[in-house]
Specification:
The protein has a domain of about 50 residues. Helix content is about 20%, strand content about 20%. It contains 2 helices and 9 strands. The protein has a 3-stranded antiparallel beta sheet, with no helix packed on it. The relative contact order is 0.04. Belongs to the sarcoglycan beta/delta/gamma/zeta family. It comes from Plakobranchus ocellatus. Its main location: membrane. This is Zeta-sarcoglycan.
Length: about 190
C-alpha cells in the first residue's frame, strides 16, 4: 500500500512548492514616462500655437472663404475689390469697373492692348506710351455716343463723319482733293 501511496503522491504532487513570483507590470514607468508625457505636451503646445498663428495670419491678411483678400471667386470668374499689382502679363476676356466708378490702369512704362486670332497671330494693337498713343490695325474707327462714325481710317481712305473740318494751321495736300465746297476761316480768303 505504501507503494501505491508513493505512486499516487508522485502522480498528484500535493506539495505546492515556492509561491509564484508577482506579475511584472506592463508599461513605461519612471523617468521614461515623464519624458514621454513632456514630449506629448510639447507637441500639443506646438500644434495649438501653429493653428492659432495660421488663423491669425488668415485674419490679418483678410483671406475669406470665397477668395483671397479683395479677390473673390464668383461663378462667372473673379472679382477684385480694390487695387492689385500684376507682375507679369494679364490675360482677360472682360475687364470692367464697378458701376459708376472709374477704371484706372496705371503703368510705369506703357499700356499695351493686343488682339490675336485663334492661331496666336497678333491682329491689332493699341499702345499708350509716355508721349504717344499708337494704334496698329487694318481699320481704325472712331464713333460718338450715338454710334455715328466720326472718323474712319482704312488702308487707302480717310472718312470724316462731320460736315465741317477745320485746321488751325496750314494744310498741304500733295494729291487731288474732292470736296463739295471750300471756304476760308471767318470769311478770310483761302490764299
Amino acid at each position: 500500500m505504501e507503494d501505491t501511496d508513493q505512486r499516487m503522491s508522485g502522480m498528484f504532487d500535493l506539495d505546492p512548492g515556492p509561491p509564484p513570483a508577482p506579475p511584472q507590470p506592463v508599461g513605461i514607468y519612471g523617468w521614461r514616462k515623464r519624458c514621454l508625457y513632456a514630449s506629448v505636451l510639447v507637441l500639443l503646445i506646438s500644434v495649438v500655437l501653429n493653428l492659432a498663428l495660421t488663423i491669425w495670419i488668415l485674419r490679418v491678411l483678410n483671406f475669406p472663404l470665397d477668395g483671397m483678400g479683395t479677390l473673390q471667386v464668383n461663378p462667372s470668374g473673379f472679382s477684385l475689390r480694390g487695387e492689385a499689382e500684376f507682375l507679369k502679363t494679364v490675360y482677360v476676356e472682360k475687364l470692367q469697373s464697378e458701376r459708376e466708378k472709374p477704371l484706372y490702369i496705371l503703368s510705369d512704362n506703357k499700356v499695351q492692348l493686343t488682339t490675336s486670332d485663334k492661331n496666336g497671330t497678333e491682329n491689332s494693337q493699341f499702345v499708350i506710351d509716355e508721349n504717344s498713343i499708337e494704334a496698329t490695325c487694318d481699320i481704325f474707327h472712331v464713333k460718338d455716343l450715338n454710334n455715328k462714325t466720326q472718323m474712319l481710317l482704312n488702308g487707302s481712305k480717310v472718312t470724316l463723319g462731320f460736315p465741317d473740318v477745320g485746321f488751325p494751321g496750314s494744310l498741304t495736300i500733295k494729291d487731288s482733293v474732292k470736296v463739295p465746297s471750300v471756304f476760308g476761316h471767318d470769311g478770310k480768303p483761302l490764299v
